[in-house]
Amino acid sequence: MATIEQIKQRYKVLIKTYHPDLYDGDKTYANEKTKEITQAYKILVKPETRNNYDILLYDEYLEANTN
């Protein structure tokens, strides 16, 4: 599992990569990608929201694999 510091470092790299002002490709794509990255960061950087996310993923995994 990634540490909070690793998440913060990766967030900075991804934001610089997809920032609409710096991205060479489609600006609409870059804008949407930046929103996704920021949303994920907000969830993963806080231990309580990250725990809830992990529980949700585990529940989805169980549902998909119990049949």
Which key phrases capture this entry?
extended, 67 residues, mainly alpha
If you had to describe this structure to a student in words, what would you say it looks like?
There is one protein chain. The protein is mostly helical and 67 residues long. Helices cover 76% and strands 0% of the residues. It contains three helices and no strands. It has helices at residues 4-18, 27-44, 47-64. Helix 1 packs antiparallel against helix 2. The longest helix has 18 residues, at 27-44. The protein is extended, with a radius of gyration of 15 Å. The mean pLDDT is 93.
Number of helices: 3
How much is the radius of gyration in Å?
15 Å
Q: Approximately how much helix is present in the residues?
A: over 70%
- Strand tally is 0
Shape: extended
Low-confidence runs: none
